[in-house]
Fold:
Amino acid sequence: MSSSRTDITIPGRPEVMEVSDGIYAYIQPDGTWWINNTGFLVGPNGVISVDSCSTQRRTLAYQEAIASVTPAPVRTVINTHHHGDHTFGNCMFTGAAIVGHERARSEAIAFGPPRDLPFWDGPDWGELSLDPPFVTFADEIAVYSGDLKAEVRYVGTAAHTTNDSIIWIPERSVLFCGDLIFNGGTPFLLMGSVEGAADVLEHVLLPLGAQTIVPGHGPVFHDSFPLEATAGYLEFVLDLARQTVAAGLTPLQAARDADLGRYADWPDAERIVGNLYRACAEIAGAPRGAPIDTIAALADMVTYNGGPLTCLA
Structure:
């Protein structure tokens, strides 16, 4: 087994950051496929975790990071959405309430437990079992870390997925936004909506004016630039999708011909293929978040990439 499968410091050492009193971000470089950020709130009666990790070893390292801050148990895990990098480690938080949007539960069950997937180079999941949210909500739920209120809000439309939620702590102006933002990386909208993601940026995230934002991938940030950069990429995808449909091209053909310009150096550039699958479907009349052929899209992403998608989780 290679060192990338055993050493948690590869591709980068995870970092615990106290972003406000008793509120921590857990940042995992390099934030690409299956390597996500999490976070936690420490209160007098226990810990609230925002998401888990993709593999057994990464979730164990995250639990050890929490234990380095507090001996208190994790009583609640809030899933920002159903994707496995944020949920596969749920089962390791025995005794904790797993909270998520009602669609996060159904989508996690539909996807199933960790297993070999043909599109990625790895990872080694470890001994993990499916543990979807069992406390669900439709629109919003509040959780408390002592007297500190955290508002868990469904964003109201398909965006990164059909079930994205944010965790907003207004008293501290801290926002955990899940995969609505890949700070410094390429967004991924195949299982959600390009138009919906743009709407959420404009009408949900930006109006909050959060002073500290913990993204699902990439560094913590304190200004609106990553939001604006993401909005620019989404508009680029929508423009390219309109040209693709008008020219009668497939998403793979259009992606291969496209000049990604300032987005070419963003990690996981092959996501342009999946994003075009989604955007072209929407332009053709598909509702936001409607089922599309994700297997074909992922296969075309592998083709665009010239081989399996790189994963160091």
